[in-house]
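Standup notes
- HV: blocked on the assembly model, inputs below
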Amino acid sequence: MRTSILGIIAGKEFRDHIRSRRVHIILAIFLIIAVVGLIDGAVNYQEQIDHYNENLAQTDDEMMHAIFWWKPSILSAFNRMSDLIATVGIVLGCAMGFDLISREKESKSLKMLLSHPVYRDEVINGKALGGTAAIAAAMGIVLVVSFAILLIFGVVPNFDESVRILIFGVISFLLIFSYFAIALFMSTVAESSSNALIYTLIIFIVLSTLIPAVATNQTVQKVVIGEAPEPPDPPETVGGPTGSFNVMVKPMPIEISGEVEEAWREYEEESRAYWEKRRAFIDTVNLLSPSKNYQEMTMAVTEPGYAASMLSDDPYSFDRPKDLPQSGLEILAAIIGELAHYIIALIVMPAVFFGLAWVKFAREDIR
Amino acid sequence: MIRCEHLCKVYHGVPAVDDLCLEVPEGEVFGLLGPNGAGKSTTILMLTGLIEPTSGACYIDDLEVATHPIEVKKKIGYMPEDVGFYPTLTAEENLEYSAKLYGMGKERKERIKELLALVGLEGVTKEVGGFSKGMRQRLGIAKALINHPKAIILDEPTANLDPQGVADYRRIIRHVADQGTTVLVSSHILSEVSKVCTSAGILAHGKLVAHGTWDELARIGGDEKVVIHIETRTPMPDLQSPALVAAEFAENRHRARIVATVDIRDELADTLAEAGVAIRSLEAEHPDIEDVFLSYYHTTEEAA
């Protein structure tokens, strides 16, 4: 593969994307919703920080640590924006990729292009590179506008927050790129752009809705990991809640006999094992969903305190794990380390689809 | 310059090109003729490196296409039948992109200007999406010439051209041929090929059924029979000649259609003069070239 040819093809593709009316419209919608969301987030942040400061003035340090151990952050506005990116951003990725090859087949320019002294891998790599650069440019514009909105509202992100905003941008880029790669693959498989778009939408629905639904479906869970353990018969004096909520509610510290205590201890252990298995199952299945991986990662980046509590092994506890660092970028790095499999999945997914597109395109008979 | 050796391409068990052996010398304008589905476009796709042969090989300037596709593509210019360009770019921008892919430097600006003038598209600034089919075809010819190719391969080049476009196309081909460029033109329109090509090959069912100069093709395909039409003022007697194959009379023997193995007009004139028959007209009809080529196709169909 020659970099000069790759550069020429990528440059042409990049220009096509940034001149595309379709991309302009989606990006404009993207920006408008992002701006509105950020303005809303900035106003909300001001309210939260005022509330936090009031609470800080009224409580001592120990109580503060126990209850308000994460400070409101402007990043929560970006967390809201992640919902937008998980929809409009994905549409942008699909729109940029679904007709990259099929449009050339339809306009007969593919045969013309391949009659030049170019290798097929240069063509598809150039197209992917041009699209990637265009997505990066779109994300760059969104981030710059976001920073500008924050500054206009007098919110100056500190170093920690700026780094997290940038990481948020990178993760968002990976999500959009995932769907771009899926759309590119569909574009090589389908004979027409309309079919490519339909196939891409089907995959989008499967990955963003069907897979998370399957992962959390109780029937599927029963089949794969078995039934949740039943709690022992409660002592008559306790009269605790029954049903599936039992496992979420920490038992009341009451006077109970040794036998009952033993039964409850066993139940707790079985319950813990069940919940670990259940979480492992959901996490594993959700790895196939770029949207779900993205949500987990954006939560970790924009709300690291909340994400830390979710990492807790104790299903009854909402406390932050003691082995995680307490503040700043350290906690972010620790959480990203804990959730690295989501990032890997966000990289592997587009790599797989791009690889499939590459193989299909390289072997295709051009007639 | 262009050579095919036992070239075969099979799609789903059906041979599209079957054991094709062909040679086009340097500087020749060669026509590849055949009805739709004869294998012309498939042959061209293999020659341009867009598809690989199932077996056999093809060469451009002694380079095997399948093993040296990039080097071969640098030496040829190609215009497909369904010529396609980027609709959101202008003609100049499309050619600019093409020239860059050929690795051309700053000289490309001058070349693009020259070619746009040659094909009559200079000063056209609208996007190619708004071009007529004929304009795209003209642009396709310009694209095929952008890299100063040693050989150009044109698939159905006049399919969408208006009479002026066809005339321009012929002028361009002659201009290119005068510069020593080898030209291979594929078409099913015989009259078009016969006007620009010096020799031709006839493909039918993926096989090369005949090739040579026009005279050679006509002589072999025409089966060397001559049809003579006679019109007289008085009725004709029976006509005798060793070369005579058949004689049909009409209008009370005032008209006759004679089929002979050679031109026997002089002999017939003498016979009629001796019989005292005044001749009104005596004409020999050589077989129409289209009939000759149809006979090639039909012969192959019957054999198939």
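- HV (later): unblocked. Residues 163-178 of chain B form the longest helix (16 residues). The two ends of chain B are 31 Å apart (CA to CA).
- Next: hand off to the docking folks.
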